[in-house]
Amino acid sequence: MPIAPHIQDDLTRSSWIRKMFETGLVLKQKYGAQNVYDFSLGNPDLPAPPAFEHALQEEARRSGPFVHGYMSNLGYPETRAAVAQQLAAETGLPFTPQLVIMTCGAAGAINTFLKAMLSPGDEVVVIAPYFAEYTFYISNHQGLKVVTPSTAALLPDLTRLKKLLTPRTRVLLINTPNNPSGRVYDAALLTELGALLDDHRNQSGQTIYLLADSPYQKIIYDGLAWVSPLNHYPHTVLATSFSKDLSLAGERIGYLAVHPAAADAADIINAAAFCNRVLGYINAPALMQRVICRCLSASVDVSVYQQRRDRLYTALTGMGYRIIKPEGTFYIFPETPIADDIQFVRELQEERILTTPGAGFDCPGHFRISYTVSDDTIERALPGFERVIRQYQS
Do 122 and 205 fall into the same domain? Predict the structure, then answer.
């Protein structure tokens, strides 16, 4: 077989999210798209905000030499300056454009950073449940994934985490607000996490970098505010994108930002800029860089997602599903009434309901619902959710 063995192995373990998406295509062909309730893929369905549309139209009319040409691998200086200014305002930290790299989404930012930091066999710790693609991002750069489970509340278990740190631990990768659980890490938790990493550094002389993947930072509910990990540990690197808060998933625009006080910050930026190029991204899309620097404070109407969360949470818990109410993202992560979450998800498919098993996030016994769907889709799917769980109720 011409395919590399490790890629063939990855294909067999490929993301459950994509598997369910492909299952959905088959069901839609058979029953019609309107009769399949697809909650599998977190593809933002809200329109981009007016500020983005206005900026896009103006920038698209620009013409002249190099309007669509290469720029520094770091990105346009004016875009990086705008991002740095926003980060400084949010965190109170002295961010400068030299600490920011524009990337092809948060995925590009994570891969660029891991490429810059990992030697073969270096460990990256992730906290289950976690975004399934982290597995492949880490293996892309010859790292070893180390998984630590969360608490029953789907938050980091710091006692277990501490026991997993070794001399090979290079990065701790966190995701807040979390995909798939919707949990948001508060200031107290991040303070404890930062203290744990500081203690490790003081005792071992080894710096573990905290890589914070935070593309959902503006999609938070109930009046809560996102707490930046940058304010709780100096050796933090932020990877984020505009895919969710501006509904730009297909435009592949995001950035990597290194804490001003991080160990070897300038070296990290230089290495990541180089990796941005050699990984094939070259630089983030020119048009999107020019557009997003004009609408950094804009956001989709998050209240729409909150209303959908409330409808699903109320309806599903009323049916008997056990759920920790998500504080953010556009996912809800119920427990399955049986241990075999894959089997339960297959039973939902019999109702033409597509969800993703918790096993895909290293958290079996749950399943993920993405509510980037219409209200009508939610309402039409609810009877099927009820019929399936009723089979397990006496």
Answer: yes
What CATH number is attached to the domain comprising 377? Answer: 3.90.1150.10
Q: Which residue shows structure tokens 């503006």? A: 218
Alpha-carbon gap, residue 239 to 97, rounded angstroms = 15
Say how many domains are in the chain.
2
d(CA 315, CA 325): 12
Q: What angle do CA 20, 24, 30 make, to 5 degrees?
A: 150
Q: How confident is the model at residue 29 (pLDDT cuts 50, 70, 90)?
A: confident
Give yes or no: residues 189 and 160 share one domain.
yes
Residue 345 near residue 2, CB atoms below 8 Å: no
Read off the pTM. 0.95
Q: Are 228 and 69 contacting, i.e. CB atoms less than 8 angstroms apart?
A: no
Domain co-membership, 95 together with 207? yes
Q: Are residues 54 and 43 in the same domain?
A: no
Please give the full DSSP string across 315-340, using - where no structure is assigned: HHHHHT---PPPSBTTEE-PBPSSS-
Residues 266 and 339 in one domain: no
189 and 309 part of one domain: no
Domain finish residue from 292, 313, 329 = 292
Name the residue among 259, 300, 314 with its Cα closest to residue 88.
259
Q: Is the pLDDT of residue 316 over 70?
A: yes
Residues 6+ apart with CB under 8 A from 210: 171, 172, 174, 193, 194, 197, 229, 233, 235, 236, 237
DSSP letters spanning 77-144? HHHHHHHHHHHHHHH-S---GGGEEEESHHHHHHHHHHHHHPPTT-EEEEEES--TTHHHHHHHTT-E
Please give the residue range of the domain that contains residue 94: 50-292
Give 329-378 pLDDT, tens digit per residue.
Answer: 999 999 999 999 999 999 999 999 999 999 999 999 999 999 999 999 99
Length of the chain: 394
Say how far apart CA 371 and CA 373 lie, in whole Å: 5
